[in-house]
Write a structure and sequence with these properties.
It contains five helices and seven strands, in the order H-E-H-E-H-E-E-H-E-H-E-E. By secondary structure, it is of the alpha/beta class. Strand 6 and strand 7 form a beta hairpin. Helix 1 packs across helix 5 and helix 2 crosses helix 3. The relative contact order is 0.18.
Length: 173
Amino acid sequence: MKKKFLILLIVLAIITSISIGFIYKKNDYSPLAPDKVKIGFFCSNQIKLNDEQYSELDMLLKSLNHSKYAVLYGGSEKGIMGQVGQSAIAHKLPLVAVDFSGFNDSQYPQAHVKLYKNFIQREYALINNVDVAVVLPGGYGALMELFWLVTMNNIHETHKKMALLRNWLLTSY
C-alpha cells in the first residue's frame, strides 16, 4: 500500500512539473502584495481543524504583524481554507484569495480576489507568489501544491521555505 501511494505521489510530481512549462509562461503573474512577506497556506476546503488545532492556527496568524505580512490562500470560505481566511481577517492581515474562475467561492469582502482561467494557472500563481508555504491537512490539491513547490525548489526554479504539519506541530524544511 505504501509503495503504491509513493508511486502515485511521484507521478503527480512529474505531471505537475511537466505542466509548468506549458502553462505558466503565457499568463500574467504579477506579484500579489509585493510590499509584504507572503505566507501561503496549502490546505483543504473540505475538512476543518478541530478547536485545539484552530486555536494553534489562530495564534500563528495573530503573531504576524499586519504591516509586514500578507496571507495567500486558495480562496474558499469552506474547510481549513475558510478558517485561515477568518483568522487572517480577525487579525487584520492582508488576505489574498488566489482562485480560478471555476471555483471562485470566496465571499470575504476583505479579501483581494485574484482569479485565473484554470486550476494549473492558479496553482502556479499561488506558488510563485508565496515566500513561505504552510502545508496543512488537505487533499490532492494541497499535495499537488506541496510537490510542485518541492520540485521547483529541487530544480532551483525557486527557493521557497516550507512548513509542514507533523503531529500538529509546524516543522520547517
